[in-house]
Design goal:
The protein has helices at residues 5-8, 50-67, 93-108, 133-146, and strands at residues 18-26, 32-39, 71-76, 82-88. It is of the alpha+beta class. A hairpin with a 5-residue loop joins strand 1 (18-26) and strand 2. Helix 3 crosses helix 4 (133-146).
Length: 158
């Protein structure tokens, strides 16, 4: 079986929340994609509930694109501790951490309401009943209060 980079990561040593550069790959035509581990909660110590995680996913899909060009995907980890963020081109952990922080600040704000969450209608979402804006806001506030690091092993908060 092929090795999967994220399964080689020692989940007992990382210090969430953080943004970690997993790696960059260059395609046959020279196109570069960069993959990030955007870890919001400490692995095996906590997990974001599915309804809140789902709303964070939908909200961040739009909020991130408002702040940076080239996002391909922002997909939740099955362990419910964070997201893979895949980007066109090369980017640094610091650049992505700033975008994540700014996006979470908007999500956590009082001005961000249901009208701001994209794709929550039945025709737009495969599990439209499983959302929690309240939960997404509470998790965003918690993550922001802990600070987002640009290093997974040492707290280098932006």
């Amino acid at each position: 079986m092929a090795e999967v980079e994220s399964f080689q990561l020692d989940h007992t040593k990382v210090l969430a929340p953080y943004v970690r550069l997993i790696g960059s790959e260059t395609g046959p035509k020279g196109d570069v994609i960069t993959n990030f581990d955007v870890r919001f909660v400490q692995p095996n110590a906590n997990a974001i509930g599915m309804a809140a995680l789902h709303t964070i996913e939908h909200s961040m899909a739009s909020l991130i694109r408002d702040r940076i060009d080239g996002m391909i995907d922002f997909s939740p980890f099955g362990c419910q501790t964070g997201f893979h963020m895949i980007m066109w081109g090369k980017h640094s952990s610091e650049e992505i951490a700033k975008v994540i922080k700014s996006s979470l600040e908007e999500l956590a704000s009082d001005a961000f309401g249901w009208d701001n969450v994209p794709g929550v209608a039945e025709k737009e979402c495969g599990n439209y009943r499983n959302h929690s804006l309240f939960g997404a806001k509470e998790w965003s506030k918690k993550i922001l209060s802990e600070g987002i690091s640009t290093d997974p092993y040492e707290r280098k908060v932006i």
